[in-house]
């Protein structure tokens, strides 16, 4: 089952919504610091409702710490970016993939994107709309991966 990674998320309700999606799908969620909030934030908890006990949550103190874990566990690192090279819906996912998303304002650092196995994008029909909300982007990508891997 692919895993979801949020690098420097800033908005508590987005992360709470993503945690809820991960709880519902049994997907591991990795949060990479610095976070734009405390894990005890009431808006984070509220968005995740009472599903937090069902979230397989991992906290990493830095991107370097996360990268060491990724290297140990293996699997492809798929960085999502508005400038990604592959359309997320035409990409072939593997069960060991890591779906990595950056902060709501800055996305993923360029140096990290360069180290990813592949970069993916969610195409926007309107050129004036740069991207979707982070929690929507994670859900879209995760459910496409699950669909392809027959985790309906």
Write a structural description.
- By secondary structure, the chain is of the alpha/beta class.
- The protein has one domain: SPOUT methyltransferase, trefoil knot domain (Alpha/beta knot, 3-Layer(aba) Sandwich), CATH 3.40.1280.
- It contains 5 helices and 7 strands; from the N terminus they run E-H-E-H-E-H-E-E-E-H-E-H.
- It has helices at residues 12-25, 42-48, 63-73, 110-115, 134-148, and strands at residues 3-7, 28-32, 56-60, 77-80, 86-87, 98-101, 118-121.
- It has a 7-stranded parallel β-sheet, sandwiched between helices.
- The relative contact order is 0.22.
SSE sequence, one letter per element? EHEHEHEEEHEH
Oligomer: single chain
- Level-2 CATH architecture: 3-Layer(aba) Sandwich
Give a count of the beta strands, DSSP E runs of length 2 or more. 7
Q: Terminal Cα separation, in Å?
A: 12 Å
Q: CATH class, anyone? A: Alpha Beta
What is the total domain count?
1
Sequence of strands across the biggest β-sheet: 3-2-1-6-4-7-5
Number of helical runs? 5
Described by the principal axes of the CA atoms, the overall outline is: globular
Uncertain segments are none
The CATH superfamily name is: SPOUT methyltransferase, trefoil knot domain
Fraction of helical residues: 25-40%
Mean of residue pLDDT values: 90
């Amino acid at each position: 089952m692919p895993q979801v990674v949020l690098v420097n998320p800033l908005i508590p309700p987005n992360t709470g919504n993503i945690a809820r999606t991960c709880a519902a799908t049994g997907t591991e969620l990795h949060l990479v610091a610095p976070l734009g909030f405390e894990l005890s934030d009431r808006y984070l908890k509220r968005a995740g409702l009472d599903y937090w006990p069902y979230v397989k949550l991992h906290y990493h103190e830095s991107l370097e710490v996360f990268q060491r874990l990724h290297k140990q566990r293996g699997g492809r690192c798929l960085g999502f970016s508005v400038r990604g090279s592959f359309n997320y819906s035409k990409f072939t996912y593997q069960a060991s993939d890591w779906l990595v998303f950056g902060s709501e304002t800055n996305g993923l650092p360029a140096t990290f994107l360069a180290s990813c196995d592949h970069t993916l994008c969610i195409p926007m029909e309107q050129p004036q709309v740069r991207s979707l909300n982070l929690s929507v982007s994670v859900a879209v990508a995760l459910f496409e991966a699950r669909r392809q891997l027959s985790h309906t």
